[in-house]
Queue: 2 jobs
Job 1
Amino acid sequence: MAPIKPHWSQPSHPDIQDVIVNDAEFTTKSVSKIALPPFGLFAKLEFPPCTVAAEPTYATVQIGRDKHLDLNSDLLYINHSCEPSLIFDTANMVIIAGPKGLQPGDELTFFYPSTEWDMAQPFDCFCGAPTCRGRIAGARDMTRAQLDGMWLNGHIRELLEEREQAAAVAAAAAPAETAPAKQNGSATAAATLTNGAASPHTTKTAAAAPAVPAAPADDQTVRALREALSHAEKAVEAARLALASYVAAVKPATVAGAQRRGPTSRELSGEMGGDTSV
Ligand SMILES: [Zn+2]
């Protein structure tokens, strides 16, 4: 984060944080002065010095759907990393160590999209982590794959779920009108895949992907919809595999039968519930 002129007396957290300013490169970073176990408390976000911001800026931290915080302290100089050493837990208004704990000299970092839904200034990350997510923006503008495995605050998880539900509804409403011939072809493939168990629901999902027409890669709505679709397809495929292996394991004698007609929803609910004797 580029240095901003502090209006607080520095250093604000001398016991736990060293702020290192690189005037030549116009950058700052922070390193830890303390050791902490995994998820140990690093600092509380208290009022004061924190204040609720009138509007989000590149220097605020989002703590709820429509709530942003001015830190008004050196905690502002905690940079982004895709393998962060810290977690900003805004529900509990604390900064805690990440799952690896903290050692003196470790750079203090957190994952910006874990708090920010919308970022005015997206940037290319050069954190150097093997899992670097590349272009860092607010969670709104990142894919599920980019956010997978990262600790995210409740308001971000909620907003992501709403985005995906909206995308799934839009995807479900759209596919029938595109390329029916292709759908038939895919339906055959899907039927083979599922040992004949392909219901209209699963064929439609399987056929939707090839039918999506080309669109500008930078269209965020298209990206979000594709992401939601891919997510749904993975879920269907996982359920299909789980069902197939369950049926194969529980009813070896009737596998041939299953190949012809596929399991019914009654079998699913009954057997998965474990109340059917074999
Ligand atoms: Zn990175």
Note: DSSP finds seven helices and twelve strands in the chain.
Job 2
Amino acid sequence: MVITLYYAPVTCAMVSWIMLNEVHAEFQTIDLNFRKKDHRKTEYLTINPLHKVPALVVNEKVLTENVAIIQWINATFPNEVVLPTNPWEHFKAISLLSWCSSGIHPFLTRMNNPKKIVGGSDNTDSVIQIATTEINECLQVADIMLGKKEFFFNNFSAVDVHFFWCCRRATQFGIALKRFRNVQRHFHFISQRQSVKKLLHYEASVIQKFETSQKA
Ligand SMILES: N[C@@H](CCC(=O)N[C@@H](CS)C(=O)NCC(=O)O)C(=O)O
């Protein structure tokens, strides 16, 4: 089986990258430089016409969306911990992954590029303000959900990684986690995981590679 992950630093593609590492999959990563609009180039549009990462290519077949990729990883590596095995918890995990992907992520996208929402108008402040309020509400809900637990479920799962990405992106946009003690603790705990540390190291090396190529 030949597995390739299309990835870009800082993006939610890190969720799939980390989970492929968690299951010890052999895969290659293709790094896209968003600053150079690699994701808008014909070569990538033939992989994902929606110009988003992650995209997973398995034996020349393309799968997009973290929620789908995670379920593929779970089905392909049944001996590894990706999603809870208890049926109810399994679907509860899909529900939480979908929440990260479609309930939290869109507000992070707005914070990243408010112009996309307001078009020609300069009124980006209100977009950022509304997105901040929505993200804080999500963090509050997650804080209660987590309580004193280490993970969202009894054991580690992909939900912990997806939520970690949401929190990391939120902090990059200036949202403080300290109001949410359980979320902050979870964030720190997940950041210490081997696969996450490996990703952060990889991400730094890709950013460095892009910066060097920019200067050349
Ligand atoms: N729901 C998708 C979101 C994918 C997504 O929006 N990716 C962003 C990076 S975080 C992207 O590639 N944006 C580039 C673009 O939209 O052109 C998933 O979880 O896979």
Note: The chain is about 60% helix and 10% strand.
